[in-house]
Specification:
Elements (H helix, E strand, L loop, with lengths): L1 E6 L4 E8 L3 E9 L1 H5 L6 H22 L9 E7 L3 H18 L3 E5 H12 L7 E6 L4 E8 L2 E7 L5 H11 L6 H9 L24 H17 L5 H27 L3 E5 L6 H14 L2 E3 L11 H12 L20 H6 L1
Parallel strand pairs: 1-4, 4-5, 6-9, 9-10
Antiparallel strand pairs: 1-2, 2-3, 6-7, 7-8
Bound molecules: 5'-O-[(R)-(carboxyoxy)(hydroxy)phosphoryl]adenosine (KG4) and zinc ion.
Amino acid sequence: MKLLAIETSCDETAAAVVENGRRVCSSVVYTQIEEHKQYGGVVPEIASRRHTEHIHQVTAQALQDAACTLSEVDAIAVTAAPGLIGALLVGVNFAKGLALASHKPLVPVNHLRGHIAANYIAHPELQPPFLCLVVSGGHSHIIEVQDYTHFKVIGRTRDDAAGESFDKVARSIGFPYPGGVNMDKVSHLGDIHAYHFPHPKVDGSPYDFSFSGLKTNVINLVHNAGQKGVEIHRENLAASFGHTVATILCDKLFLAARDLGHRTIVVAGGVSANSQLRAMLTERCKQAGYALYLPPLNLCGDNAAMIGAQGYYELMAGNTADMELNAMATMPLDRSFAEMAKL
Ligand code: KG4
Ligand code: ZN
């Protein structure tokens, strides 16, 4: 079973051909980062326009690299939620056109489910059930992956996502967008104990996160230092902040794993590329005797191969859509597109 997959939820225009959910025949990613950098973040309208300009070429390249034609693929998978609405609509409409013209099934894919599925590509032996930490620019979740298409949300952020807090703190100390990556690059030159940041208290669920207070704390520290003419040591701040975020994520994740009896831990989303988080997870999983699965760096960020991987399992579960499929800016990860359409 070969799927042509399309991803346009944020600032990457991507297409891929994936076989049986596990083998990547081709994967093309056109990133718009350089253009958005000058504005300090993603400008939604620019993102939509660039997707519109590049989606055809990126898709044609993915088919060519996989040495197959549209008539040879078995289905068209597309990210339909969550993400920037204008950006998603470009991919959804393009995928609909392809499905209509080729008489192939159209498979809508939740972007976050796609991030989780990146691990199926990298780790052939990995199968649900497992506990997954999903950390991206817009989301931070602890998810129980019960099977390929059934998920239970165990914990979530109450405010900012982990990646968002990295980006906002990075911006306050002058790093270009996307800040998380740039903070990570210098963090190993700094001292994790140089700055002490309090861990946020979250009422209610012990598995929920909150990053907004921590982010504000750091930004206030930077502003106060600026007013007093005190220099901020960027490497130390990057190291201390990264260490704090990694500790908060790991503490909640390992608490959930212990309470729910999971011994297989999977990590997904852009922030799973963070070296401090990867090191801490590796160390703590080793201590606890848990199996740890991390996506390789080239599959941490947005790509269409992961959408093709999840799309295969959605197709197997009969989760296809008709030509009325619409994109959604937000969507709970544990709901199907069919359920959402009925609401
Ligand atoms: O999953 P992703 O590519 O896009 C979304 O679905 O949001 O995640 C992007 C986020 C950005 O906030 C980016 O700064 C963050 O992931 N990120 C990192 C690193 N690489 C990407 N944050 C910390 N350390 C990294 N190495
Ligand atoms: Zn993403």
